[in-house]
Every structure is written in structure tokens, then in C-alpha cells.
Amino acid sequence: MVTVSLCMIVKNEEEVLDRCLGSVADLVDEIVIVDTGSKDRTKEIAERYSARIHDYEWIDDFAAARNYSFSLATQEYILWLDADDRLLERDRELFRELKLTLDPAVDSVAMEYHLAFDSNGKTAAMARRNRLVRRACGFKWHNPIHEYLEVDGNVYLTHIAVTHDRRGDHSPRNLAIFRRMLEREGELTGRNVLYYANELADSKMYREAAETYERFLEQPGQYYEDYVLACSKLAECRHYLGDMEGKLRSLVRIMAYDLPRADHCCAIGYCYQDRGDVRKAIFWYELALTLELPVHHFGVVNLIAWTWLPHLQLCVCYGLLGDLERAYEHNEKALEFLPDDPNLLANRAKLTEALGLGGDSA
């Protein structure tokens, strides 16, 4: 069985830290807490779990703080979490089994990161993260903000999930850090341009965000997934700016870097549906249904595009064409994922009546 150090950086996390540590404390062999200036009960809560607590002067650099936390680990593997993360019971059991069976030649274990949930509590958006890494590899964090862990070697993919329940809006803090970086350095380069654009978009500064995404896309030599994300986020900005043609161009631009995913196909389909070109919309929604969820993709994916969303939109599109039988079929498919959704149930009732089917469909 391998041994694990849990390494965390925290500040004023009294609302969520107990839940996080309670979900994982019995699965790890030590807990290292690096506190960057808490004024609440964060340290007191950490002490209940026999954590080793270290103070660290905050210097506007998340990567530096995380690297410091990793330097304090003593066990074979390092697990990292944020205070608003936790492991649900299913994932606790999978993690327990992983500790017993993990090949010590594995350098990193990639886990799912569940970020958003539908009305039934099912995961609606997820990413993957290199979450458990072999300490001897000496992997380092990079980037002062939106830090990332650079990993290579033998990576093992699992379906163990860390569940995220974000508290608060971090965009003002993050924007302030980026602007201080701009004051010091004069410009941003590399991934920091993308991350700055993301913060601008999250702050609804869509025009400036769009300009920044365009600037990122002009940079050579970036990771292809970053280009895909930039195009997708640029399309969102164009949407909010009322530039629907620009939105469509941004989505189609994704295919210069990678094959389209189901979420991209649904977004393109919606562009055509919005302009009344229903048959082209149907093409893209039906294409989405043929695409598999990418296994090795580490960016955020909207899982609804692989489940109920294309079926719902096809129901609408076929309804507009007067093909009620196909509309009904796709509404039923959507209901398999969201059986209690009031809109889908209302669609069922209307289509059942229009088609003269009688009674409720199972």
C-alpha cells in the first residue's frame, strides 16, 4: 500500500475546511496545511485533524505557495485539494482501493473534477486533474495565478472524482493580481494571457475579454487545448456582445486545432437554430450524438452535450419542421437523463396529444 500526504493551501476557509478534511482525513497518512494569512477559525479546524500547519507569507503567487506545501510532504505520494473540494462516499471507497492497489511506478494519478451539477445532482460539467503525484518526481507548480502542475512520465487515469463546491466570487481578487503583474512586467505572455481573458469574461467585461482571447490566439506554440478553450470562450463573449456571426466563426475556428466535441457541435447547432436554419442545426445536433466523451481531455467539458441537450434541441427542431414523431422520440431520450424535468414532461404531454398516442409513455 502506498502512503499519501495531503497538501493544501488555505486562507479563511472556516466554512468549508471541516467538510473537506472530514471527507479525506482517514484516507491519507499526513495532512500538511499551508496558511497564507487566515483571520478566522481555519487553523483551529485543521488542528482537529492533526494537521501540520505552516504559515506562509502571501506574495500573489499560488504556484509558489503550492510548491512550498509540496516541499513539506514526507510520504510517497502527494494529494492536493482546495478547501472547497471533497470526496463523496463512492470516491472515498475508490480512493481507498487505489491506495491498496496502486503500482508504485505510477508517477501521477489523474482524477475527475466535478464542477457543476443538474437538478438531480448528476454531474453536468467536469474536468480532469493530475491529483495524486509521486513525491520523488519533484513535479512543480507554474503560474502565479491559475497555477498548473506540470507532470510527465507514467500517468494513470481513474474515475475517482473530486467534487467541487465553489464558494464566493474570486474574479475581483484574480483580476487585481493580474493587473499588478501587468504593472510590474508591462505585459502578459503565454497562458497568462488566456487566464486573464477568462477573468475578464467572468467579470462580464466581454469586449476586453474578446480582444484578449484574440491576442492569445495570435501566439504561436501554445497547447492545443488552450487554443480550443480560447475559441470556445471567445464565442461566449461574441454571444454576449450580440455578434452572432462572430460567435459562429469562433466556434468553427476550433476545428483548426482539434476535432469538434459534442459541446462545440451543440453550440454551432444553436447558432443555426437561432438564425432559423433548422436543417443545419439538426445536422450539428445529430453529429453531437455520435461523438464520444474525450477520455484524455483535461479541459472543462459540459456533460449535458453528451446526454440530454442535443436530444432536447432536436425535439425543438423537428417540432419546427412538423416532424412530431421524431420530436417525440428525442424528447423521450432526453427524459431518460432528466426523468422529472417539468419542461420535458410538458413536451411529452403536448406531443402525446398531438400524435394521438393516448396515456402516458413509460
TrEMBL record:
The UniProt record lists the keyword Transferase: yes
Domain Glycosyltransferase 2-like: residue ranges: 5-90
Keywords: Transferase
GO MF assignments: transferase activity
The keyword Transferase is assigned to this record: yes
Pfam families according to UniProt: Glycos_transf_2
Protein name according to UniProt: Glycosyltransferase
Species, as recorded: Cohnella fermenti
Phylogenetic lineage: Bacteria, Bacillati, Bacillota, Bacilli, Bacillales
